[in-house]
Specification:
The chain is mainly beta. 14% of the residues lie in helices and 46% in strands.
Length: 141
């Protein structure tokens, strides 16, 4: 009788041990470059009620990069991607401040006062997902 009860509980015990030994699920905002060229990427977002823009991540072809580590707290993020070598970019109508070199700018107005210029970012809706991956493809001619 005890053996039968133990055997009935065994699958649940195995699953519990596997779950306890598993690393926690990772939650990030990631970008995957599905093109054949390097793409420079910048990200805009709200954090604790403040607009922030930061960049540049150089994402190699067929590679992914984590732009914002941790659980996502907003439903929308903003992205700009530029493939300078082939003269195309991914942009939109939401203005953020950017700089030519690596940057992190707090606020999205009066860019020149921060040594930056305004650039239009694409809105990316992530919903209530704790993690999200955006895939960049080459534009169609």
């Amino acid at each position: 009788m005890r053996k039968a009860r133990f055997l009935a509980l065994l699958p649940g015990l195995v699953l519990a041990l596997l779950a306890a030994g598993s690393p926690p699920a990772k939650a990030d905002f990631n970008v995957c470059n599905k093109t054949k060229e390097r793409v420079a990427v910048a990200l805009g977002y709200r954090a604790q009620g403040v607009w922030i823009s930061q960049g540049w991540w150089n994402v190699e072809p067929a590679r992914c990069s984590t732009l914002l580590p941790g659980k996502l707290s907003e439903t929308k993020y903003y992205l700009y991607a530029d493939a300078k070598a082939h003269n195309w970019f991914l942009a939109g109508g939401f203005r953020f401040c950017v700089k030519n070199d690596e940057f992190r700018v707090v606020g999205n107005s009066n860019c020149p006062a921060q040594g930056a210029k305004p650039l239009g970012f694409l809105e990316v809706s992530v919903g209530k997902n704790a993690s999200f991956t955006y895939e960049i493809y080459s534009p169609q001619p």
